[in-house]
UniProtKB/TrEMBL annotation:
Keywords annotated in UniProt: DNA-binding, Transcription, Transcription regulation
Annotated ranges, domain HTH araC/xylS-type: 198-296
Bilayer-crossing regions: none
Cited Pfam families: AraC_binding (PF02311), HTH_18 (PF12833)
Domain of life: Bacteria
GO molecular function: DNA-binding transcription factor activity; sequence-specific DNA binding
Protein's organism: Rhodoferax aquaticus
Keyword Transcription regulation: yes
UniProt entry tagged with the keyword Mitochondrion: no
Protein name, as recorded: AraC family transcriptional regulator
Amino acid sequence: MTTTASSKTIIPVGFNPPKDSHLAVEVMSIAELRQKAPPEHFEKLQRADFYRLIGVLEGQTHPMVDFRTLVANAGDWLLVRPGQVFRYDFAQGWDGCLMVFRPDTLAGAGNSRAAQEMDFLRRVEDLQSLHALASAAHAWMVRAMRQMQEDAALAVEVAVRNELLRLQLATTLLRLSVWQSPTAAVGQAELTWQQGFRRFRALLESDFTRQHQVQHYAKALGMSDKTLSRACQAAAGASAKALIHQRLALEAKRLLAHTSAAMQVVAQDLGFDEATNFVKFFRKETGMTPLAFRKSV
């Protein structure tokens, strides 16, 4: 991992494994992580372009993820997604392990016919941020992380090591999904809604700062507005319009809380022509003005 200097409070962090490895997945202990940067680095807010999967082996920690301070105890696993604002907590002594991987690693794991049938990418997207695992499941996760660390150091071609790590990553995430939701197989109709929703969520993540209308997403996905909203309601319990607004409001909170950007700049970054329109939107979504929210955090 490498960090990029920034005048903003949030530090961008990019995925960059050791130059001699070129691996798509990196596994390390928390002790090894803390040797990669000075202590003050871990006290700052970070926004990465990769996933983090953190396992707590001993002790307790209170990381911050998108305005929520979580409590992670021994046996807990935390998944931090690309784009989320995150801060480590080393105020208390704790030990653990960390796996980082790029989003395109998931795309490779989800391209097989079998992966598509089980809707692998949707399962990953639906994973909770914090998992409290039973002791047997936690022990399996720890063994898997150690095995991946060993496999990353094998004296074989990079392509072989990457394939080993990719397959083990897919297995690890699928197990988390099963442990989270050990339910029966879904019907074809529900699967269709879920697939439509997954496509919408991916498009929303790329376009939400420019496109605020349901019509844009429906047209891009080859659906009617009504069909898209039905897919969102079935999969997420909210309309497409509500999900667009939720994503905008979350990004607005990130910018207001973790940068000193002027209101006009925040409005423009989120695709609002006028700051007054942004203020009206934010107040409707949160019950607070942007300035009041900034002062409260």
